[in-house]
Amino acid sequence: MPTLLETAAALNNLLNIGWAGRTDIAIDNVPYSEVNGQAYIESIFIPYTTYNVNIGSGIDSSCERKRTEGVLQIIVRTPINEGIGLAYSYSNDISGIMDNKNPIPNLFTYVTEVRRSGDNKDGWYTLICDVPFVSDEIN
User: Fold this and answer.
1) How far apart are the first and last CA of the chain?
2) pLDDT at position 117 over 90
3) Domain that holds residue 30
4) Burial of 52 (0-12, 13-18, 19+ CB in 10 A)
5) How many domains would you assign to the chain?
6) Longest dimension (CA), the chain
7) DSSP-derived secondary structure for 30-87
C-alpha cells in the first residue's frame, strides 16, 4: 500500500479538500475547459523513480518495499497584467495544504517548491508548485 493509482488519488484528494473551491482544479488527463479570465490550478501526477528498499533488519522479507518518489505538480494560472499577488497567494495556500502531510499510510509529502514558469502564455501568469512525495508499496 499504496499503488501509484492510490498515491495519485490520495494526493489529489488532499489538494481538492484543502483547496475548498477557491478556483477550478484541472486534473491531468481529464477534460477541462478554461473559463475566460478566471484563475485556476492544474494538478499533474509525476512519479519519477522507483526502487526497492528494506525497512528494518533486512532478514524479515515483510519489510521489503517498492519506494516511489515523485512530485504532484500544481500549476497556478492567473490572468496576466493583474500583478503577481494572487498567484503567489495561491502558491502559499498550496504549500499550507500539501507540505509535510501523511494523507494515507506509507505516503508522505515534503515542502512545496515554487518557481516561475517563464514567459506568460495564452494570457496567463503561471507558477509551478512541485510537491515532492515518497510512497512505499509493501511487496
Assistant:
1) 8
2) no
3) 4-138
4) exposed
5) 1
6) 60
7) S---PPTT--EEEEEEEEEEEEEEE-SSSS-GGGEEEEEEEEEEEEEEEETTS-SHHH
Tell me if the pTM is above 0.85: yes
Describe the chain by its helix, strand, coil percentages, rounded to 5.
Answer: 25, 40, 35
Tens digits of per-residue pLDDT, 8-51?
A: 999 999 999 999 999 999 999 999 998 888 999 999 999 999 99
For the chain, the average pLDDT equals 91
CATH number at residue 83: 3.30.2000.20
